[in-house]
Design a protein that fits this description.
Blueprint lengths: L5 H4 L14 E7 L3 H10 L8 E8 L10 H5 L5 H4 L3 H4 L5 E5 L2 E5 L4 E4 L4 E3 L2 E4 L4 E2 L7 H4 L1 E2 L3 H16 L5 E6 L3 H14 L3 E6 L11 H13 L3 E3 L2 E6 L3 E6 L2 E6 L2 E4 L3 E2 L2 H4 L11 E2 L5 E2 L2 E6 L4 E2 L12 H19 L14 E4 L5 E5 L2 E5 H14 L3 H20 L2
Helix pairs in contact: 2-11
Keywords: FAD, Flavoprotein, Oxidoreductase
Cofactor: FAD
Protein name: NAD(P)/FAD-dependent oxidoreductase
């Protein structure tokens, strides 16, 4: 059963906002990932609502990133425009408007958002969907020498670094990847395929298995793909330090110094500082506590999505912090915002786990859904098809689908 701490119950935020048809409703969405952008697009569909409204999407980057396809950028399978279209393009036909900026502070009591450039925005309804940031202070040297892989800029840096290493006279290119979750496994397979026999890829994790939250079918297919590509898997292994040209690990009490040309860091996230400072209820992991209707506990005009929040359904089941969950939360948040504006009953969010999809190298993937596991080239085709359906707008879907189909036909003709 959902409960609100008394500290936040008594802040007077549980009253319905009183609005008229002449009042300009300001809806502010912070964060342009799956949760934020898709909420903005969904809200833009309410153009016939009798209220005057303004929808602003605030994001510091100028391009959306379809993160599940970021790996294909590194191998040249996909182009930047396919996985990272601009917000202005995506919102061109929407009533939601893009505002490029970085959030500095949010005042939940006064309904104010302060940006780093000093601009102050007021809101009637707020959507928090900024996600988390990579934590690099867990291991000495990680912040200085490890490279993250979560943005388009990260992918571009990695491509340039690989080109530099490939053009060098190094007989073997040694890459260590910290973290054997989906991010680590997928990039390990892609790098192994790109570098071939010249690459020495090492996947390191302190746990005793890869993809610990995934199905056995996905784990087995992924492990098989890693081994086939010669990726060295170091489980039950702690990273003690990272140097400019080496990584220091400890396995079963034995310390090893391994030479590396590149270290990729794929694990460890933390809340953004201004999120930590919000005067609201946080759980022990620092996440914001939400109601089943995706509202911030104590602030019914604030909606929270994605991994920055602890979101449980009406039965108390916690929603996983995944892109798939954020994708499903967006339409629910949009409908509930309009339900609240028009005085209708809000609906609880209920997460439906549709399955798992991982790219496991070039022309290889694994798809697990409702107890069935498929891997290989067929899984790759299924994965691409599903992701076309999940791209943000119809026009972008059409452009990407056309390019993929033409590329497939050309490939067949060359055989």
């Amino acid at each position: 059963m959902y409960q609100v701490d008394d500290k936040f119950r008594n802040q007077g935020k549980f009253k319905q906002l009183s609005v008229s048809n002449t009042h300009l409703l300001r809806i502010c969405i912070l964060g342009g990932g799956f949760g934020g952008l898709y909420t903005a697009l969904e809200l833009g569909n309410f153009a016939k609502c009798p209220y005057k409204y303004e929808i602003k999407l605030i994001e510091r980057r100028d391009n959306f990133l379809f993160t599940p396809l970021l790996y294909e950028v590194v191998t040249g399978e996909l182009h930047n425009w396919e996985v990272a279209p601009s917000y202005k393009k995506l919102l061109a036909d929407s009533s939601a408007k893009f505002c490029q900026g970085e959030v500095k502070d949010v005042d939940l009591e006064e309904n104010l958002v302060t940006l780093q450039n000093g601009e102050i925005l007021t809101y009637d309804y707020l959507v928090l969907a900024v996600g988390k940031e990579t934590r690099l202070d867990l291991v000495p040297g990680a912040a200085e020498y490890a490279q993250t892989f979560r943005t388009l800029a990260d992918a571009e840096y990695l491509k340039e670094r690989l080109r530099f290493l490939e053009a060098s006279d190094l007989p073997v290119i040694k890459i260590a990847i910290a973290g054997a979750g989906p991010n680590g496994v997928e990039i390990a397979c892609k790098l192994a395929d790109r570098l071939g026999k010249r690459g020495e890829i090492r996947l390191i994790d302190r746990g005793n298995e890869i993809l610990k939250t995934f199905s056995k079918g996905s784990q087995t297919a992924s492990y098989r793909a890693l081994v086939k590509r010669g990726v060295q898997i170091g489980l039950n292994t702690n990273i003690e330090a990272i140097k400019s040209d080496a990584i220091i690990i400890n396995h079963q009490g034995k310390t090893q110094h391994l030479q590396t040309n590149l270290v990729l860091w794929t694990g460890g996230n933390q809340s953004i500082q201004w999120v930590k400072n919000l005067n609201c209820q946080h759980n022990q992991q620092g996440q914001l506590v939400a109601t089943p209707t995706l509202q911030l506990a104590g602030y019914p005009n604030v909606f929270v999505l994605g991994d920055l929040a602890e979101i449980r359904d009406a039965q108390g089941n916690e929603t996983p912090a995944t892109a798939q969950a954020a994708f499903q939360q967006a339409p629910c948040a949009a409908r509930n915002i309009w339900a609240k504006i028009t005085g209708r009953k809000l609906k609880s969010f209920s997460y439906l786990h549709l399955g798992e999809m991982l790219t496991l190298g070039i022309n290889n993937a694994v798809v697990y859904s409702f107890g069935i596991t498929i891997d290989g080239n067929l899984a790759r085709i299924i994965r691409r098809g599903v992701y076309i359906q999940r791209l943000p707008t119809f026009n972008h879907k059409l452009q990407v689908a056309r390019r993929w189909i033409l590329a497939g036909i050309k490939k067949l003709l060359r055989r």
